[in-house]
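Complex record, two chains
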Amino acid sequence: MKRRVLIGAIFWTLLISLAHVQLNVGWRELWKSLRVMSGSERAEMIVGFLPVT
Amino acid sequence: MKFTDWPTVKEALISKDIGGVFILAPMAMQLVADGVPIRVVYLGHRDGTAIVVGVDSDIRDFRDLRGKTVAIPSRYANQNVLMHRMMKKWGMPYDSIDLRELPPPEHPTALRSKSIDAYIVGEPFAAMAEVGGFGRVLYHTKDIWPEFISCVLVVRVDLIEDSPELIQELVDGIAKSGKWLDEDIAHRMDAAEITAEHYYFQPPELLKYVLSKPADRVKYTNLAPLRPDFDEIMELAFEIGVLSRRVAFSEYADDSFIRPLEDLDWEMERLARPTDEDGRK
């Protein structure tokens, strides 16, 4: 019983995490964040401007 | 990322599509008053704004603008604050000039068609009427409000907390670029060529005019956000109803990224060079 609950909890956590990435974060963003965290890519910042001075 | 209107800029900041933006100073204050988590970390430039009238206009000084229609870029622009500052200085009631919001690119054409009597705007749209031969500068801001602030660099607070090194690199880059621009007129001419093609999409000759006639028409040094400058803007903006409440300098500004200008210089030999089609530098 305990084992089934544990497997269920792990499965549920995994499922909810995948859904969160898919719906809220985006796989591309996650991949980029991991690369920045690992140091293999520089962090990027987008700066907006209006072409007036 | 290029934008064409201010509401979209605000949305992009809130949705975190952009990390920072060059934005109108009073608008940055109002965004903070509205709860948008941003901070002013640097200025875009000093001066670089002018009041322009028709070339044959009989308007000779600020008093002559009484009863006239003058275009401003936005009610949240410091140009709007400047007009009210001038009216106060000249003892004119705030409603003595008809101020109309108009997108900056439309200012010169509106003056040419005589649908307005004058306009106040940031460059290169002030110089456009001069170069086109139908406008005359009544005042440069350097002569009526020296070290005028128009656009400021704001960044998201979460980026300041999570990636301060990114903000530092950006601020240092702007400071170094400004120092390089202001130390030699030849640098300004080079910059005009590059920015005309890649950022402003305006004729290089127009930008060269802006950057040299006169050379102090727009300045790119002294870009640290200084409290007395901002306090004056904030008080005036609140007085004329642009700001919904008074906003303290510490609420909307973070000057921790400022470094002495003498410590900053581009290492020119280490800068990336544009490559030709064959990939050669």
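Note: Chain A has one domain: 1-53.
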